[in-house]
Amino acid sequence: MATFEIEGNGFVLDGKPIRLISGAMHYFRIVPDYWEDRLRKLRACGFNAVETYVAWNVHEPKEGRFVFDGMADVERFVRLAGELGLHVILRPSPYICAEWEFGGLPSWLLADPAMRLRCSDPPFLEKVKAYYDELLPRLKPLLCTSGGPIVAMQIENEYGSYGNDKAYLNFLRETMIAGGMDVLLFTSDGSEDYMLQGGTLPDVLATLNFGSNPERAFAKLLVHQPDKPLFCMEYWNGWFDHWGDEHHVRGYADVVDVLDRILAIGASVNFYMFHGGTNFGFYNGANHIDHYEPTVTSYDYNALLSEAGDPTDKYWAIREVIGRYAELPDEPVPAASAKRGYGEVRMTERAALFDSFDRIGGEPVASVAPETMERLGQDYGFVWYETELSGPQTNCEIMLQHVRDRASIYIDGAFRGVAERAGADSVVADIPPSGVKLGILVENMGRINYGSQLRDVKGITEGVKAGVRQYNQFLFGWTIRTLPLDDLAGLVYEPYDPDAIREETPAFYRGTFVAEEPADTFLKLTGWTKGVAYINGFNLGRYWEKGPQRTLYVPAPLLRKGLNELVVFELHGMDQPVVTLQDKPELG
């Protein structure tokens, strides 16, 4: 058992002064086989602590169904950190931001249109309490007061950027205390007055998040909290990418300078991120400041370790700075992982989506109007809407009112265009006298993870209208199919017809390759348009020709020695049915 406490303007561990130099990495963004490697590289860089969020949507994907194994085994991750001599800062807030889908909140909260998020509304608190009743007993043995490595826990994340409900913050604190969380509790916010006013609690350590000008930030904190230690809970040493952006790079000279100033002040610090990892599956988040911007699959973050866990120039530069203020461990830095290019993989089989609804989709649902994913009980992936559109109609505008987020529109099975949340909302077509079958495939590109538009339901959220824009009418009478794409085992493939190249209908393409020695590799889809890739049934994440991400990271533990299966779900066709597995990533 140990105690980690505040004493004066510093921290003490079992009565001895300590400064935390921590690095962030998220267990749910790293395959478990690599957890130890990443933690050892953290320790070898001179860090004495690791910080991780706990993502509610990872652990309770369906209400009342809890998952704490595989990539969700937070207990194993924390124990491993402790075995390696690292302290742990845990941030188990209901909300985590983190450029993670819905900021870590589970999508099923949105099935109730009256649900109020991140406040003391009783229905929301009831859901949080049920989650904590499962989570906190698992964490109790891992606290330093129980002999474990967790020295501090967060109450809420950047709450002052969202709201000012002190009753909500107090509920979280009291629930954690009642659950036995008898370690140091803290909040973390930006350094603006309104953020610190709304996001902090009396007698609870307030910490700051920033990427530059530490003197200004800490001076502001001291106005609000003059008698407690200074702690930068998120030192932003890199940044994340949206689809269509340029890849963000922050040079290490600037990062080194700011860190040196933080440590010279005497503050503790947590690098956000030390190692970013990957938004596998459909777990990327999105932002909406001026418009909707989904985050890419890679969470490389231009951090100290690359997406594949390799030390960067920034790693070595930061290690040198830390060595000025703390003793570096006398141990070698673990080597970079082995990389291998397996060359071209020809996709020799194909399964059309429209022929596969019964094999991978939910049962058809008859509905008067389009329903959202959440009302249909679906979390991620795609949803198919189908109805009859009468004719004749010349220059008929088919408009999606509030689509979330990107819709491919088909008339009698033929592709007619895309309507997007952040772009055009309609297509125009001539409808013959006999009428047509209208089909709309909507992709959830990632729920918003930050800010006032956090409530982000997916699918067609209002309705579909047809006719002349000024006089169009809502269409009623729909058949809906949920397509979470979480289990593709039921697909039936046929030999691929190369004449179908660039056919604008969504389909799954399958190929195989041999890996005599599994190693990290990177999937490049040159000439492909947009979709999702799977390796041996594992969802690697999204790809999109607009970049900046040009490859998908494939960790070696996902490969088998011998034959491996690669499946690509492509929405719009490709130049050639060939992909490449190469030995280096491409970002930007």
UniProtKB/TrEMBL annotation:
Pfam families documented for this protein: BetaGal_ABD_1, BetaGal_gal-bd, Glyco_hydro_35
GO biological process, alphabetically ordered: carbohydrate metabolic process
UniProt keyword list: Glycosidase, Hydrolase
Gene3D superfamilies: Galactose-binding domain-like, Glycosidases
Sequence ranges assigned to domain Beta-galactosidase 1-like first all-beta in this UniProt record: 370-480
InterPro entries recorded: B-gal_1-like, BetaGal1-like_ABD1, BetaGal_gal-bd, Galactose-bd-like_sf, GH, Gly_Hdrlase_35_cat, Glyco_hydro_35_CS, Glycoside_Hdrlase_35
GO molecular function: beta-galactosidase activity
Active-site residues, Swiss-Prot/TrEMBL: 158, 234
Keyword Cell membrane included in the entry's annotation: no
Top-level lineage group: Bacteria
Domain Glycoside hydrolase 35 catalytic: 11-324
Domain Beta-galactosidase galactose-binding: 506-564
Similarity-based family: Belongs to the glycosyl hydrolase 35 family.
Protein name: Beta-galactosidase
Naturally occurring in which organism (per UniProt): Cohnella nanjingensis
